[in-house]
Amino acid sequence: MILRRHTYAVVRQPVYLRLKTIRHHEKSIFYHNLRVARVAYRLGRMIEKISRWRMKRKALIRGALLHDFFFYDWRRERPASGKLHAFEHPKESSRHAERFYSATRRERNIILSHMWPLGMSWPRHMESWLVTVADKWVSLKEFYRKWFR
Predict the structure, then answer these.
(1) pLDDT in tens, 94-111
(2) What are the CA-CA distances from residue 67 to residues 33, 53, 92, 107, 112 (Å)?
(3) Whole-prediction pTM
(4) Domain total in the chain
(5) For residue 89, what are the domain limits?
(6) 3-state secondary structure 83-119
(7) What is the CATH number of the domain that holds 15?
(8) Which residues, 6 or more positions from 74, have their beta carbon under 8 angstroms from its beta carbon?
(9) Is residue 23 classed as helix, strand or coil in its secondary structure?
């Protein structure tokens, strides 16, 4: 229920629905972000069960949904800065998240650090680490599915 409530608040916006039209690893950025949010949430729930840590669910879900919030196909285009996609798209995603969703400091850290160790930002919160791991896992699965079809 919590996953749905926080997810719908983000994904129902017309600006976010544009991500369905932009190709990413396997399908679109939209579906990639949903998968990452789902995996990060499940990882967080597992960690909560075995430890005393309690995740900030809203920040985790919103950060995961907005971690790849950019509007270009990275295979053909570069970010607005003209630099390499792997290093620049977290900054662009963070700017868009701030502009369209008023992202919190924790959500911005999740977005900016999800490419660690490639990016310049260090994951400062457990939620940031969860999204980083979930993104790596989901991306790896998407690449394997593409190559072994």
Answers:
(1) 999 999 998 999 999 999
(2) 7, 23, 10, 9, 8
(3) 0.89
(4) 1
(5) 2-147
(6) CCHHHHHHHHHHHHHHHHHCCCHHHHHHHHHCCCCCC
(7) 1.10.3210
(8) 24, 85, 89
(9) strand
